[in-house]
Amino acid sequence: QVQLVESGGGLVQAGGSLRLSCAPSGRIFGLSTMGWYRQAPGKQRELVATITSGGSTNYADSVKGRFTISRDNAKDTVYLQMNSLKPEDTAVYYCNAAGRLLKRYEYWGQGTQVTVSS
Length: 118
Description:
The protein is mostly beta strands. Helices cover about 0% and strands about 55% of the residues. It is globular and about 45 Å long.
């Protein structure tokens, strides 16, 4: 069973930056889309950004222009550069990897806390 390991979360002041990384514990075959989701206290998990193996990206409106998702296909690793952070970005950020081999699969990371102070 592949595990996704996230790193890079922490505490930052509003206006600051953080870079999240997510790497698998082993090679993932048939991998298609990787992405980041977040869940704030009392709220549902929401999409932040996704990126396909071909490099196509999709962002939540709330992070467009501030966050950048990127990917290293050779390492099956995905990154999230977060700039101009706001207190409302405070949440647990989860990495996601999805693809298809014989059937569709999906993996989630354990989550990393991002806290933005005002």
